[in-house]
Amino acid sequence: MRPRLRMLLPLAAMALAGCGAPPTIYAFGSYFPAWMLCGLLGIAAALIARALFVATGLAQSLPHQLLICSSAGVIVALLVWLVVYG
Predict the structure, then answer these.
(1) Cα angle vertex 62, ends 79, 37, to 5°?
(2) 24: number of Cβ within 10 Å
């Protein structure tokens, strides 16, 4: 084997390993991936952050509001994933 292929073989084996059972949620008679719940909670957190910024008047002075609200949503989604499915 070529040296490059020899180095990539362990990486390919790790990528194909996978996990035993994916985290799923039983809701509405079906199993949903857990990341979907975390994503929806993150979207809700971003919308709540936007509403709070507008209600407090902070939206007038904040630059890059889309980035800030999106970051708040991602932080909440990742924290929910870490705490619930850790």
Answers:
(1) 25
(2) 14
Contact predicate 32/40, CB 8 Å: no
CA atoms of 72 and 47, how far apart (whole Å)? 9
In 3D space, the residue among 79, 86, 77, 64 whose CA is nearest the CA of residue 35 turns out to be 77
Quick one: average pLDDT of 29-57?
90
- 39, burial (CB in 10 Å: exposed 0-12, middle 13-18, buried 19+): middle
Whether 79 shows a pLDDT value over 70: the answer reads yes
| Residue 36 to residue 25: CA distance in whole angstroms | 9
The per-residue pLDDT for range 5-24, each reduced to its tens digit, is: 777 777 777 777 666 666 77
